[in-house]
């Protein structure tokens, strides 16, 4: 599994049972579940849940969920961040003209993602919450750069977030 969109999407999302060799992912976007199923080569979708019963796939997913982000090739950062954003991000649109992008993350991960964004010229802030951290992109120029960054060469994306982000 070298699809870094899926690695980002599954990072801290879903359920992995290594003893039974099971993976379960819930998502409202059926196309995302179909894409993950196609790339991983197995699984069944019922409602909005993808279930995969395969020990090798469960081991791979577990490995990639623990992956040191610094091991991701720089050319794949856009795919990884897009996957994580689709799984854990929000787009807030106010008065049909102002957008704000947020992602909830662990502390170390929040600053690592912020560094990726800074490296790509995208200004963001990180602020602590009760048990996690929130990364926010809110300036209009930064939002435009964020859109260009994460949707560059995109094969898979969550349409609802894409359309909200591009509605402003």
TrEMBL record:
InterPro entries: Homing_endonucl, Intein_endonuc_central, LAGLIDADG_dom. Pfam families: LAGLIDADG_3. One of its GO terms (molecular function) is endonuclease activity. Residues 6-122 form the DOD-type homing endonuclease domain. PROSITE patterns: INTEIN_ENDONUCLEASE. SUPFAM superfamilies: Homing endonucleases (SSF55608). This is DOD-type homing endonuclease domain-containing protein. It comes from marine metagenome.
